[in-house]
Each structure stands twice: as structure tokens, then as C-alpha cells.
Specification:
Elements lengths: L4 H17 L6 E8 L4 E8 H4 L14 H4 L4 H18 E5 L2 E2 L3 E3 L19 E8 L6 E7 L6 E6 L5 E3 L4 E7 L5 E3 L4 H13 L4 H13 L3 H23 L7 H21 L5
Parallel strand pairs: 1-8
Antiparallel strand pairs: 1-2, 2-6, 3-4, 3-7, 5-6, 7-10, 8-9, 10-11
Helix pairs in contact: 1-6, 1-8, 6-8
Length: about 280
């Protein structure tokens, strides 16, 4: 057995174990941003499991069921609302003209009778979260700070223009108000933020991608085949990502993680038993 294959197989087995253990993980949180005559408003459908402190960061926590959550009593939901509001205010902070800007948290799903939570293909419990910020007088910039501690990225979709993105610890300038009181869309450097997100998807979060390409390279350690295989891998990854974002396909991420780890282990086994290709 080649010495360089030992860490490859070991890491693949670790990933396989991680895939089996990690039941529910959130990679991003998404809000729509708009202005009204009274408030600056952010609204999004948020994973309920992600927002409750008893489940956050627990690798064994499974996604809460939408059907079961809609059967809870008003008293139970009152407690849940309080927990979600506390979590929201730990994750999201705002300033205007460099001064802290408080905000209200509301739950528009509960304006309906009977309660109807947002639908999701896998019966995952989502809840609509609305953040209301009262505009401050005078010129300044409305800045959002993303303080997540679980490696989820924040995506903000304005009424016009391209989405904003923030990694944990990052910030977004949502809009700027000039001396006349007219707001203009903020400038966050969207391209740079998306590049950072893509880079983080590979390093440090994409060890599985690196291992897969490394395993292919060890089978055929030549540049031309490696480039071709890497391009095909990237194309396939982009197609599946697009299908998931568009909602054309939806799978349980636990099984996806297991399949990813299994594919890496398989490449490692091929390196052990097959002669070098090419």
C-alpha cells in the first residue's frame, strides 16, 4: 500500500462517519430586503431547528417536522417565539450612521387562521421571520452584521439589484441615505463576497472536494487528464447545485453526505487495487 493512500482512506472514513452522524445542517439563511413607508423590512423563511438553542450545533439533532409543529398549542408557540427572537438578535445586528439600530421581530405565519407554516418538500419545519427596523433621521448607511457561529452564510435579496452575501463575522451595507433623505442601494462588493463564499466552500469547508480530486489524480498523475476530470467534476457539481437552488430536486442531505464519503472511499480503494491509469 502506498504511504500517501493511508491518510486519504482514513480521512474518507472520517467523512463517512461524519455523514452518518450529522443529521441536519444549515448552510445558509436567506432574507428578502425591502423598504416601506414606516420600516426597513427583512423577511425570510427560516429553518426552525436552526433557530432553537436546544438544537443549534447539535450534530445529532434531526429536523423538526412541519406537520408536528403545526399541532402545538398557543402556549408552546409563545415559548418558541421568545427563543427564536433571542437567537435572531444574537445572529443579526444593525447600525445606521455607526449607531446601533434596534429592531422588532414578528412572525407573519401566525396572522393566519389556522396556522400554516411554509411548505418544504421533506416536511422540514420552517417559520417566516420578519425583522422591522424603524428608519433613523439624517444621512447614513444601514449596515447589517452577521454573527453566526455555525458556518452558515447569509444571503440578502434586495428589491432591485444582485443579492448580497455575508460569511460569519461579515457585514453588508444594505442602503445609504443622503442629505436629502433619499435612500440608495448599498455597495457591498458583491463579486468579492461571492468569491469568498466559493473559496470557503472548498477551503476549509470542501475537504471532500479536494480528496476526490486528489484520489483521481493519484490514479493518473498527469496534468491533462487531471484538468479534464476536474472540469467534468466542476460541471457536474454546478448542474446539481443549480437544480437544487431552483427547487427542481430535493434530497435528504444526510444521505448525500454518506454518498459523498462513499465515493471518496471508492476512489481510495481503486488507488489500492488498480494499476495507474494512463
Amino acid at each position: 500500500m502506498s504511504s500517501h493512500l493511508v491518510p486519504l482512506l482514513t480521512f474518507a472514513l472520517i467523512l463517512l462517519n461524519t455523514g452518518l452522524a450529522r443529521a441536519h445542517k444549515i448552510d445558509s439563511m436567506e432574507f428578502n430586503f425591502r423598504e416601506s413607508s414606516e420600516f426597513w423590512i427583512l423577511e425570510g423563511e427560516i429553518d426552525l431547528t436552526y433557530m432553537l438553542p436546544e438544537f443549534r450545533g447539535d450534530p445529532d439533532a434531526e429536523a423538526l417536522s412541519r406537520k408536528e409543529m403545526m399541532e402545538l398549542s398557543a402556549e408552546d408557540w409563545s415559548v418558541i417565539h421568545e427563543k427564536i427572537e433571542k437567537t435572531a438578535k444574537k445572529l443579526l445586528a444593525f447600525t445606521f450612521a455607526d449607531e446601533d439600530l434596534p429592531y422588532l421581530v414578528s412572525f407573519p405565519d401566525f396572522d393566519k387562521t389556522p396556522l400554516l407554516l411554509p411548505e418544504e418538500q421533506q416536511d422540514v419545519a420552517l417559520i417566516t421571520l420578519r425583522l422591522l427596523l424603524e428608519p433613523s433621521a439624517g444621512p447614513g448607511t444601514l449596515t447589517l452584521f452577521w454573527l453566526d457561529d455555525l458556518d452558515a452564510q447569509l444571503i440578502i435579496i434586495p428589491e432591485e439589484g444582485d443579492p448580497y452575501i455575508a460569511l460569519p463575522g461579515g457585514e453588508i451595507n444594505l442602503l445609504a441615505v443622503d442629505e436629502s433623505g433619499d435612500p440608495t442601494q448599498g455597495t457591498q462588493g458583491e463579486l468579492f463576497a461571492w468569491i469568498k463564499s466559493g473559496f470557503a466552500h472548498v477551503v476549509p469547508l470542501g475537504a471532500d472536494h479536494i480528496l476526490f480530486i486528489l484520489g483521481i489524480f493519484l490514479l493518473c498523475p498527469r496534468l491533462k487528464p487531471l484538468l479534464g476530470q476536474s472540469l467534468l467534476f466542476t460541471l457536474a457539481h454546478s448542474i446539481t447545485l443549480t437544480m437544487a437552488v431552483k427547487g427542481w430536486v430535493s434530497f435528504n442531505t444526510t444521505y448525500i453526505e454518506i454518498l459523498i464519503a462513499t465515493s471518496i472511499a471508492w476512489i481510495g480503494i481503486e488507488n489500492l487495487w488498480l494499476k495507474k491509469v494512463g
